[in-house]
Amino acid sequence: AAGLEAGVVDVTVTDDNGTGTLSDGLEYTEPPRITEVTPEHGGIVGGMYVAITGSGFTSTDDTTVTFAGLNAFNVAVVDPATIICQTPAYKAGAVDVNVRNSNGLAVLPGGFTYHGAPEVQGVSPDNGSPDGGTTVTITGRGFLNPSFGVIGDGELVRVTYFDDTTVELVTAPM
Question: 12 pairs with which residues across the strands?
């Protein structure tokens, strides 16, 4: 079957007495393949919805998705190229993502990375007016594109995300 594409083919047997054929007697199926998980990272608490793109995905009833060997939740096969599911909780680090169905197993090594709580290591400037309006750069690690932040007991303010080590915000009035 090497070189054949997925699809239905006839099955033919020939012997000394002749030839017999069963039309559409065998279906070659495409094994699943994973090309991407979006987003590719999330928190250790799990519960994040992700989209798995690839090919060869079958029905929801026929599909199991795992992250680091743990079953995903609310798995839904949207079409042969898309699965939506929720991540299970797991410790920090990169993990393999697996999709298994009756046509085989697909593995995306290191396809999803779990992150722990962000760590704030520095603030610049480290002072500002109680009237607010100070632009503050916060450095650290493990920032996962936050939208909002709080300084002290102040109000929630919008955050500008630069990368997983740097964010910026403008302080609110005290």
Answer: 21
Residue whose pair of structure tokens reads 């100070």 in the numeric block? 134
Q: pLDDT by residue (tens digit) across 47-105?
A: 999 999 999 999 999 999 999 999 999 999 999 999 999 999 999 999 999 999 999 99
CA distance 9 to 15: 20
| CA-based nearest residue to 141, from 114, 160, 122 | 122
Q: How many whole angstroms separate alpha carbon 163 and alpha carbon 110?
A: 20
Global confidence as pTM: 0.67
Per-residue pLDDT reduced to its tens digit, 126-143: 998 888 889 999 999 878
Q: What are phi and psi of 102, to 5 degrees?
A: -65, -10
CB atoms within 10 A of CB 1: 6
